[in-house]
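Summary of Year 1 activities. Much of the first year was spent building the evaluation harness for sequence design. The harness presents a backbone, in tokenized form, and records the residue chosen at every position. We chose the following record to illustrate the format because it has been used consistently in internal testing since the harness was completed.
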């Protein structure tokens, strides 16, 4: 009875990790249960450690640790499942010289090298059926481990692309109001058309990359200029200020504004991989003081439109908090003031 239980548990474990690995690496819709659980637990542990010691730079190692932990987790679970299957039959693994059945440690050893090679000869499968099974897991194990390692390559490429889009957004302005002030020509904000047109496609692509590789959410940058989340939040808030407080004839064209807003919405949708709770956070207050001081025409916002955007802004707030940022930091300077002239920063 115990041997049957070991066999069933081993099969379930192997099927679970195989499905999780294949779904995570090939599905365009995110991570499997095992990998997402590992990622979330590690992120929360590192996140609260950074809060406890008040040292945000700890978060910068989270992404790499999570990717490596997911990979190691797949290997260990695959290894453990096959060990249980070999334990289900006393004669499954034997010493090639004495023909004595292997003990637990020897079966763990035999399973480990079988998953990556066909062994070194000191232990072997005890029957034709087990020899066929050993050959099967040798091929399948090597393939699955290779797939897991290959998963890291597009993730790291996506991290680089994310830094690039973040720097591009930050170049428009370091805060929502600065983005608008930098593109006010004295009459309207049509100068933003070029920026918005250039950002819509790469942001839409980032949304899809985050759906395909949810682990990207856990790559944190302490430098705001390279951190996509506070910059996307600032850009989205700039658009919100345009939609609520700026007369329609002075806004960028709908052909530029709508695709970008929709791309950001897609990006926010990719955050469903995270355990965000927008309902538990307070909606940030609106700040248009610099726009008013610059003499830009401001209209009184419609209360219905404000209420419609409440969920969106709370989601942005929850997104920032989950990644270790505060809402006020979307207005923080992005570059060292000692590196250039004030007008270049």
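For this record, the design step produced the sequence shown next.
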């Amino acid at each position: 009875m115990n041997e049957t239980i070991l066999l069933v548990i081993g099969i379930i474990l192997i099927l679970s990790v195989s499905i999780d690995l294949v779904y995570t690496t090939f599905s365009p819709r995110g991570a499997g249960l095992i990998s997402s659980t590992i990622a979330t637990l590690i992120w929360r542990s590192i996140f609260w450690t950074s809060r406890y010691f008040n040292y945000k730079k700890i978060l910068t190692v989270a992404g790499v640790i999570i990717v490596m932990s997911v990979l190691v987790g797949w290997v260990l679970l695959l290894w453990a499942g096959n060990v249980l299957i070999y334990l289900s039959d006393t004669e499954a693994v034997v010493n090639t010289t004495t023909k004595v059945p292997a003990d637990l440690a020897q079966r763990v050893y035999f399973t480990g090298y079988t998953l990556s090679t066909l062994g070194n000869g000191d232990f072997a499968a005890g029957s034709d059926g087990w020899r066929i099974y050993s050959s099967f897991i040798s091929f399948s194990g090597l393939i699955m481990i290779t797939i897991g390692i290959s998963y890291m390559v597009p993730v790291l490429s996506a991290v680089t692309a994310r830094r690039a889009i973040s720097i591009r957004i930050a170049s428009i302005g370091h805060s929502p109001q600065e983005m608008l002030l930098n593109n006010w020509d004295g009459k309207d904000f049509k100068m933003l058309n070029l920026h918005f047109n250039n950002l819509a496609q790469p942001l839409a692509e980032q949304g899809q990359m985050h759906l395909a590789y949810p682990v990207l959410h856990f790559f944190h940058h302490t430098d705001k200029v390279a951190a996509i989340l506070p910059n996307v939040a600032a850009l989205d808030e700039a658009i919100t200020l345009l939609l609520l407080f700026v007369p329609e004839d002075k806004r960028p064209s709908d052909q530029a504004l709508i695709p970008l807003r929709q791309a950001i919405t897609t990006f926010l949708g990719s955050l469903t991989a995270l355990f965000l709770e927008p309902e538990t956070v307070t909606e940030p207050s609106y700040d248009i003081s610099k726009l008013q001081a610059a003499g830009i025409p401001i209209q009184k916002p419609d209360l219905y439109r404000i209420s419609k955007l409440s969920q969106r802004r709370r989601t942005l707030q929850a997104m920032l908090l989950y990644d270790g940022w505060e809402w006020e930091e979307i207005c923080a300077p992005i570059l060292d003031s000692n590196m250039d002239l004030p007008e270049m920063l």
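The chain has a mean pLDDT of 86. Quantitative recovery figures across the full test set are reported in Table 2.
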